[in-house]
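The data layer described in this paper is built around a simple, fixed record for each protein. Because each token names a local backbone shape, the row as a whole describes the fold. We quote a single record here, exactly as it is kept in our systems:

***
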Amino acid sequence: MSWKILIIAGLFEVAWAIGLEYSDGFSKFWPSVATVVALVISMVLLAEALKTLPVGTAYAVWTGIGAVGTAILGVVLFDEPADVLRIAFIGVIVVGIVGLHVSSGGH
């Protein structure tokens, strides 16, 4: 169950990272509120996952999910570059996340 919670925490990390762009430096009220709510949910879920997962593994997976999701949404939503090298390195992060999950005996 901790792995599922951690994945959801990572998805909320993506939400708050993207929310930072939409909040325009916290100058837009509703996008700022949504960003802060997503940040709090992400942190609470990460803390919950840390009750049973090692901190190094959980943090690396959480940030990895956030990095991959934010990079993909940056391409989709904000027209950021999607060249082959960038996509390849995003893939390396995904391999790292899966490797940490497998090596820790996660289910």
